């Protein structure tokens, strides 16, 4: 049984009870996804499945993703260059201690894909519209599952807004 992690094949654990987060951190030594609450409430462990679906890796068993592709924050960079959203987080001080940052970035990448596909949020006003404006309220609602204990939300919102601004105009 295998899984692809950040573009490379990896062996799934023999124990089917191992969480995806524990596989990433303890067996593959990828420290990006963090174990915050370990209950799915903080979003620090957010990773992407098949490049676009955001999940909480602390709540997922690794064996559930046999044959699928997982991208952690380490897998977003290409050829040593930061992913554009990672750079925007740096530019806008979208972090303080940095503990939540990998989950915030992975969640924002997944959120942007949901938004592009027209998936509504609980604050989407016009469900019949062909497109959804990525307003501040819309963005904040979509990112609400990712907590920042340092309170760097203004920088996080500014980074995400700037990265996806061209798509909103």
- Share in β-strands: 5-15%
Largest sheet: 5 strands, mixed
Class based on secondary structure composition and strand pairing = alpha+beta
Which residue ranges are poorly predicted, with pLDDT under 50 across at least 5 consecutive positions? Answer: none
How are the strands of the largest sheet arranged?
Answer: 2-1-5-3-4
CATH architecture of the largest domain: Orthogonal Bundle
Number of helical stretches of at least 4 residues = 5
Report helical residue fraction: 25-40%
Tell how many strands the DSSP assignment holds: 5
CATH superfamily of the largest domain: [2Fe-2S]-binding domain
- N/C terminus separation: 45 Å
The sequence of SSEs as H and E is EEHEEEHHHH
Give the integer mean of the pLDDT values. 94
Name of the top-level CATH class of the largest domain = Mainly Alpha
């Amino acid at each position: 049984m295998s899984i692809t992690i950040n573009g490379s094949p990896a062996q799934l654990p023999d124990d089917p009870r191992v969480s995806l987060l524990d596989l990433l951190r303890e067996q593959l030594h990828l420290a990006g996804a963090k174990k915050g609450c370990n209950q799915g409430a903080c979003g620090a462990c957010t990773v992407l499945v098949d490049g676009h679906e955001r999940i909480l890796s602390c709540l997922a068993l690794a064996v559930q993703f046999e044959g699928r592709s997982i991208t952690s924050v380490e897998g977003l960079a290409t050829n040593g260059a930061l992913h554009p959203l990672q750079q925007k987080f740096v530019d806008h001080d979208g972090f303080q201690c940095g503990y939540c940052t990998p989950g915030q970035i992975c969640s924002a990448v997944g959120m942007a894909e949901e938004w592009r596909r027209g998936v509504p949020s609980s604050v989407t006003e016009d469900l019949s519209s062909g497109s959804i404006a990525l307003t501040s309220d819309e963005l904040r609602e979509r990112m609400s599952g990712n907590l920042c204990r340092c309170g760097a939300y203004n920088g996080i919102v500014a980074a995400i807004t700037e990265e996806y601004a061209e798509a909103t105009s």
